[in-house]
Amino acid sequence: MEKKPFQAESKRLLEMMINSIYSHREIFLRELISNASDAIDKIYYRALADTTLNFDKDDYFIKVSVDKENRILTISDTGIGMTQKELEENLGVIAQSGSLNFKTANEAKDGYDIIGQFGVGFYSAFMVADTVTVVTRALAGDGAYRWESSGVDGYTIEPAQKDAVGTDIILKIKQNTEDDNYDDYLDEYRLRSIIKKYSDFIRYPIKMDVTRSKAKEGSDSEFEEYKEEETINSMVPIWRKNKNELTDEDYENFYMEKHYGFDKPLSHIHISVDGAVRYNAILYIPERTPFDYYTKEYEKGLELYSNGVLIMNKCADLLPDYYSFVKGMVDSEDLSLNISREILQQDRQLQLIAKNIKSKITSQLQRLLKDDREKYETFYKAFGMQLKYGVYSDFGANKDVLQDLLMFYSSKEKKLVTLDEYVSRMPEDQKYIYYAAGESYDRIDKLPQTELVSEKGYEILYFIEDVDEFAIRVLMSYKEKEFKSVSSADLGIEPDEAKDESDMDATENQALFEEMKKILGDKVKDVRVSKRLKNHPVCLAADGEISVEMEKVLQAMPNSQNIKAEKVLEINTHHDVFASLRSAFQSDKEKLSLYTNLLYNQALLIEGLPISDPVDFTNDICKIMV
Fold first, then answer.
1. Whole-angstrom Cα distance, residue 199 to residue 305?
2. Residues 278 and 337 occupy one common structural domain
3. 166 and 47 in one domain?
4. 300 contacts 316 by C-beta, under 8 angstroms
5. Which residue in 109, 222, 448, 618 could disulfide with 536, CB within 3.0 to 4.6 Å?
6. Cα dihedral sign for 374, 288, 282, 396?
């Protein structure tokens, strides 16, 4: 029997493919099962044109068999088979795809499609096998043939004995090495898991003889093993079913079966598109944050299928970062796959699907916010921070998409509110959307800076997450209303007139503040009269773009470059403490220095900032007690 060589370019391609095209060896089983499914599809196509050929789907299947002792793995199908000439053309020339030729001649009929377009998937078998044997009998062919190869040295073709139409691919699995455990591909449980992972939704049954155990006859304590043929794959994917046939429980079960999360999904989106790009998708909005969500280890992405065959486990390109919490899958017939069917070409189809998915997720979140507030707030507590990062990232490119989904705690409502709800109840004379930043709602409630805004009856939004203020700075305004921190130098509020009980004139006040600024040095940019304080003696305000809270966040980051807010110490001239300051300024400069430092440190503590020298601060307190 003459051994025929692969063409020179095919030989080089085979060497390259075995060593580098496929990143995971387990892919070989996906490829061989996909080819088997294509072979059955070809009979279906033939039956559409040939009225003498009857296609009964129940007669067609794929069988995976294991002979562990002899290290043989066999994948059989009841498909169309190959003639001797087709064996030469399809398996003798790598990248000569019989499926692609068949697909070109029979463009997608009745919802069936063939994905073996490159003609290289078969050769992935050489990643795990020393020898690959193909025994095949073609529909209406002239007999059966055996094709056999041990790799790049070539192949043989000879007549064979096979009664039924179809193909058997017989792999002689390699021996284990120090680095590779090929026994995996002879292990029943491992093979079942690979089939479920990649080929669960192949439309024909994938059968295996599965090991079961039963009690021995006449014994309750002794068991014996036996083999039973079982269909491993689900076949009909949920996303191809009519939405009206499915219940919430069906969607929840699919979520659990696919291990998208350990929680129950808050909401699902079932998409079926038959337009410029055809695809189906089922997306889920989880209830809880995954434990690794805000870590580098978390991988975003949707499962990506082509005609029910898993192509990518995590296709990141289908989701924008701000919707990275979404779980689910997409199945499309129209994707441009690369040679290994593992990584997508960056093509227009993928971009169109991603754009549509983004729009569907946005609409679903808006619907939840409007119609099921409790569910939305549950979602927001888990993933609201990610939406804020979305506003902040990419220089605010996505702020228009996300701004109506944001929520913040309200000083008046004592619950989360949207920006639209805040603006809708603003008094006519209110110019700005006011916010206050701090470590907790409790701490913000007690901030001196909120006194004037609260006294005017204006609502304040509470920011307690690091990203809040950064996101709002990018947003800048909402419905033509600018955002304003309660710590800003200018609040845009005219304080109510009050009699100045101080006997000092403006010049004397200015001299006192200049002296206090001199005492504090570069710790503050300025010391001035506060227009916002009512009951508290002192507070810190910020001039410039960096607020005190933003300083705290930036200082905690690596390579912070010591970025600081331009702090202003504001003094309440109507507070009893101010009388003591004035008195010390007139008669005891040492006491003025003591009071000034105490007030500055008090302002730092109110803001949650560290005191530079706690010992000095303690000593200063002791001085005023004796």
1. 10
2. yes
3. yes
4. yes
5. 448
6. positive
Compute CA 217 distance to the chain's CA centroid, rounded to the nearest angstrom.
Answer: 53
143 Rama class: left (phi>0) / alpha (psi -120 to 50) / beta? left
User: Domain holding 589: CATH number?
Assistant: 1.20.120.790
Which pLDDT score is estimated for 543? 87
Rounded distance, CA 502 to CA 517, Å?
20
Structural domain count of the chain: 4
The HSE-up count of residue 414 (CA atoms within 13 Å, CB side) is 2
Q: Are residues 76 and 117 in the same domain?
A: yes
Cα–Cα distance, 348 to 209 (Å, whole number): 43
Q: What is the pTM of this model?
A: 0.80
Q: Answer whether residue 62 is part of any domain.
A: yes
pLDDT at residue number 216: 82
pLDDT over 90 at 239, yes or no: yes
CA distance 83 to 89: 10
pLDDT score at 89: 83
Reported residue count of the chain is 626
Same domain, 325 and 343: yes
211 and 320 inside one domain: no
Q: Is the pLDDT of residue 322 over 90?
A: yes
Closest CA to 280 of 206, 326, 334: 334
Would you say residue 493 lies in a domain?
A: no
Could you tell me if 369 and 243 lie in one domain? Answer: yes
